[in-house]
Design brief:
The structure holds 2 protein chains of 2 kinds.
Chain A lengths: L1 E4 L14 E4 L4 H11 L3 H5 E2 L3 E2 L3 E5 L2 E3 L10 E6 L5
Parallel strand pairs in A: 1-7
Antiparallel strand pairs in A: 1-2, 3-4, 5-6, 5-7
Chain B lengths: L2 E8 L2 E7 L6 E6 L5 E6 L5 E7 L3 E7 L7 E3 L15 E8 L2 E7 L2 E5 L7 E4 L23 E6 L7 E5 L3 E5 L7 E2 L20 E6 L6 E5 L2 E5 L7 E2 L9 E6 L7 E5 L15 E4 L7 E3 L17 E3 L7 E4 L5 E4 L7 E4 L5 E9 L1
Antiparallel strand pairs in B: 1-2, 1-28, 2-3, 4-5, 5-6, 6-7, 8-9, 9-10, 10-11, 12-13, 13-14, 14-15, 16-17, 17-18, 18-19, 20-21, 21-22, 22-23, 24-25, 25-26, 26-27
Classes of the chains: A alpha+beta, B mainly beta.
C-alpha cells in the first residue's frame, strides 16, 4: 500500500476525503484512478486531457519528482502537491 | 416576499448580495472555495450555477439549489479528450435555455448539460467556422483569453444559439451547433484582416433590446447598433469619450435606451480621466448622456469587464455594475443616480441578477 498525501484544497470538494489515503496501485496514474473510483471527479482536479498532470499539480514518489507514468513501489510515499504560486 | 439576488463573480470566489427592497443589501461570501468565478447565473428554478476555473485544480461548474448555502461541483465531460489535441484551459460563460445548461470554454467550445450540471457533453468546437483554424493557437490569443466568451440561446428553438468567440466574431447556429455563420456585417477593425474577412472582429459584448430586431454591441473599436437581429451593424460611437469598453446593458422595455461604460483603450482600460461614469442613449445612439450622480468623480481609475453590468427584470428596473477594484454600484432610476452597495470585494469579473421567491 502506498501512502498518498493530498493537497488540503481538495478536501472541501469531496465528502470525507482525508489528507492521507492508502492506495494499492502500480503507477501514479493508477493511484489517481483508484482515488477517482472512491471519490468520483477527483481525477479531473489533478489531471487534464492526455491525460497529463495539471500544470500546477506536482507529484513526488519517495521524494523524487514524478509524472503519471512513474511507478509507485509498495509502501511508497506518494505526495500530490498544489504548487506554491499565485497571489 | 420576492428577493433580489446579485451574483458577483470575482477573482476570489462568488459573492451574493441579497435584498428585499433593493435598498438594504446583505453580503454573503466568498463562496465556491474562493475559486476564480468567470460567470454565475440563476435558472428559473432558483438554482445557481457558477463557472469556476482554478489555476491549480482546473475548471468546474459549481451548483447550489439553496441560494448558496450548500454546493456541489462537477466537471464530468467538461474536457476535449480525444478532440484534435485541444485542451480545456478554462470555462468562462454560462447560459440556460430549453431546459439545458450551456457552458463556454477556452479552447473555444460549447458544452451542454441536460441533468442540471451533473454531467456535460461537447456540443461543438465550431469546426468549419471561419477563423477556427487559428483561434486556438496560443500565439494568436491575448492574455486572459476567454475563448467562447458569451452564449445567447434564442427562445424560438434549442438549435438556434448565438455565441461570441473572443477576438474573432459573433456566430449563429441554426442547427444545434453543426454549422456556424458569422454576424459582423458593417463592423470595422483597426488591424489587418484575416484571410476570411467575414471574421477577425473583437466583439466584447452583445446586448439584445426588447425588440428582437434591435441589438447593441460594445466592440474593441466602437459602439454599434443592429436593426436586423444582429446580422449587420451601424456605428453609434459618436458622442462617447472612447470607442473602447466592455460592459453594456439594454433597457428592458425601450428599444432605444441603452447603457455602456466607455474605458480608456490601451493597457489602462479604466474610466477616462479617473471619473466614473455610465453613458446612456435614449435615441438608439444618436446622442449620449454622461451619468455620474453618486459615482466617484475623481481619482477613480476603475474598469468594468464585459459581464460586469446587468439590469434586473422588474418594471422599475435596477441597473448594477461591478468594478475591477471591487465596488458594486446600483441605480433604481434608470441611471440618473447611483448608490454604492459594496466595497472591498476582490476584482469583479461578472455581475448577474435575479428575482427569486
Amino acid at each position: 500500500m502506498a501512502d498518498v498525501h493530498l493537497p488540503s484544497t481538495l478536501r472541501p470538494l469531496f465528502a470525507d476525503l482525508p489528507r492521507h489515503v492508502d492506495v494499492d496501485a502500480p503507477t501514479v496514474l493508477d493511484a489517481i484512478a483508484e482515488l477517482d473510483r472512491r471519490w468520483p471527479g477527483l481525477r479531473d482536479r489533478l489531471c487534464q486531457e492526455g491525460p497529463s498532470l495539471r500544470r500546477h499539480i506536482h507529484v513526488y514518489v519517495d521524494g523524487e519528482r514524478g509524472d503519471l507514468a512513474t511507478e509507485v513501489p509498495p509502501n511508497a510515499r506518494l505526495e500530490v502537491i498544489a504548487a506554491i504560486s499565485g497571489g | 416576499m420576492p428577493k433580489t439576488v446579485l451574483l458577483v463573480g470575482t477573482r476570489k470566489g462568488l459573492f451574493l448580495l441579497e435584498s428585499d427592497d433593493r435598498r438594504d443589501w446583505n453580503l454573503r461570501g466568498p463562496l465556491c472555495e474562493s475559486w476564480p468565478i468567470y460567470n454565475a447565473i440563476i435558472d428559473e428554478s432558483g438554482t445557481i450555477y457558477a463557472a469556476a476555473a482554478s489555476e491549480w485544480l482546473g475548471s468546474s461548474v459549481w451548483r447550489s439549489s439553496d441560494l448558496g448555502e450548500t454546493w456541489t461541483q462537477s466537471s464530468e465531460g467538461l474536457n476535449y479528450e480525444g478532440v484534435d489535441g485541444l485542451k480545456l484551459n478554462k470555462i468562462s460563460s454560462l447560459a440556460t435555455g430549453h431546459g439545458k445548461l450551456y457552458v463556454g470554454a477556452e479552447s473555444v467550445g460549447l458544452f451542454e448539460s441536460t441533468d442540471e450540471g451533473k454531467t456535460f457533453s461537447l456540443v461543438s468546437t465550431l469546426d468549419g467556422a471561419p477563423g477556427r483554424e487559428v483561434w486556438n493557437d496560443p500565439a494568436m490569443q491575448p492574455p486572459g483569453h476567454l475563448g467562447l466568451s458569451a452564449i445567447l440561446p434564442y427562445p424560438d428553438s434549442p438549435d438556434h444559439i448565438r455565441v461570441i468567440v473572443q477576438g474573432n466574431s459573433t456566430f449563429d447556429t441554426n442547427d444545434g451547433g453543426k454549422t456556424w455563420e458569422p454576424r459582423n456585417k458593417g463592423l470595422r477593425r483597426d488591424w489587418p484582416p484575416p484571410p476570411n474577412e467575414e471574421v477577425g472582429f473583437c466583439v466584447h459584448k452583445l446586448a439584445p433590446s426588447p425588440d428582437p430586431e434591435r441589438w447593441y454591441q460594445q466592440n474593441h473599436v466602437g459602439m454599434w447598433r443592429s436593426d436586423d437581429g444582429g446580422t449587420s451593424w451601424t456605428e453609434i460611437t459618436e458622442g462617447l469619450p472612447s470607442e473602447f469598453g466592455f460592459a453594456a446593458a439594454a433597457h428592458p422595455q425601450d428599444r432605444d435606451t441603452f447603457y455602456c461604460i466607455p474605458l480608456d483603450p490601451g493597457h489602462g482600460r479604466t474610466m477616462p480621466d479617473g471619473q466614473a461614469a455610465v453613458w446612456r442613449t435614449r435615441d438608439a445612439g444618436s446622442s449620449w448622456q454622461k451619468l455620474t450622480n453618486g459615482l466617484p468623480d475623481r481619482d477613480a481609475y476603475v474598469g468594468v469587464l464585459r459581464d460586469g453590468m446587468v439590469r434586473d427584470d422588474q418594471d422599475d428596473f435596477g441597473l448594477y455594475f461591478g468594478t475591477s477594484t471591487g465596488q458594486i454600484f446600483a441605480s433604481l432610476d434608470e441611471g440618473d443616480s447611483w448608490t454604492e452597495l459594496s466595497d472591498y470585494l476582490p476584482p469583479i469579473q461578472s455581475v448577474r441578477v435575479a428575482t427569486v421567491a
